[in-house]
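ok trying again, last paste got cut off:
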Amino acid sequence: MNRRQTNWLVIVILLVAFSLWIDLNNNILVVNPFSQETLVNRDVSVKLGLDLRGGLQALLEADLPPERVVTADELNNAKNILENRANALGVSEVVMQVAGERRIVAEFPGVSNPEEVVTALKQTALLEFVEMGNSPVPEGTTIQTDFGLVGPASGTATATPEAGATPAEAQGAGAQVYHTVLTGTSLEDAHVAQDSLGHFQIAFTLKSDAADLFREYTRTHTTQYLGIVLDKRVISAPIIRTEIPDGQGVIQGTFTSEEANALAIQLRSGALPIPIKVVESRTVGPTLGEESVRKSVLAGAIGLSVVILFMALNYRMPGILADIALVCYAIFSLMLFKLVPVVLTLPGIAGFILSIGMAVDANVLIFERLKEELRAGRSLRQAIDLAWTRAWPSIRDSNFSTLITCLILYFFGNTFGASMVKGFAVTLSLGVLVSLFTAINVTRTFLHLTLDNLNFAEHPRWFGL
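nice, full thing came through this time. structure:
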């Protein structure tokens, strides 16, 4: 072997060792031996999708009149906020995709309490600090505020509270409308706390600019009531006893631990830009997933065994080396799936199995070329190099056309909310890239390592000739 091939052999050995380390562990922990500081602590367990693990699937839609246009930004922002809420609830491997102009497809693998998730997602979570003067509104009462109302002249919604707005200006004579001083967008942080009696409450911190406004407001409205309103429903109406200078306060109410935690999550992730309703939801049981995994693993094992036997029987020594490279391919692919991470679904597993065929296809092209060069009287080393050089255009074109197809499928699945199509595209494309690496570098390195010092004329049967 020349120096270049020796370098590649070292790279392949290191890659195999690293990949096995990732594949055989569900959590990667790297600690600095000198300072004992944790450098890396990451969960790398295999992520299973809804069809394999079971859970909740929901179709969400903008709860607005048909004539109201929902912009792409509004829908994407709503999707991001919903994802944050779901992650904060502890739901892992959440998949959310915009579907069309008004809908979002949401998948929650492994969910044990679907009702809690659906309730937390569909709430708008618009928090308002509302001026109530000397007459507080009882808790639980639904009120009208001047935030977000449509102006009679402009026809556009009020984006931020205006200090000079009055109920009559906001809504018209005859309707009681309360003025919004601040909204939840002014929050820097919100978390669950307990008072001296053990009652749950939400401690909040305002952003710096809002803290200044809040300080001035509380200074000038001492002994008056400030309503705390969530989705137009009063949850508490504390009295302002003194100026609040640091932008920190608490939201008190009759909360349970779960209610306080859910409210804090909603406030941290922000208010939805548009109201959302659940059009359809269904629970997928794990029994079907377990059976599907078992059959998929069996099918993959059978397919891989047939491919290994074909390569070994048809191409003899090069085929056996290609089989070893194929095992490396499987090790590398699983490592990538765990690191990316890829949420495996049945179509995703199908894409991976299909990519095994792509890996073998490259080896078939190379070995057929190798046979031709050996029949033409080339030395073994020359035949190996020429086989790779002359087979490369076909390998390149077939694999790149597959990658282009995967890209189209990915954008199709992303546009229409077809997560399974996306899963198929991702696993197939990753498999194709890994197969290119193993076919061009790993198999070639193994061939040079084993065959460079072999006399072909003495062992033609080792090459299927």
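cool. The first strand starts at residue 27 and ends at 31. Residues 58 and 281 are 4 Å apart (CA to CA).
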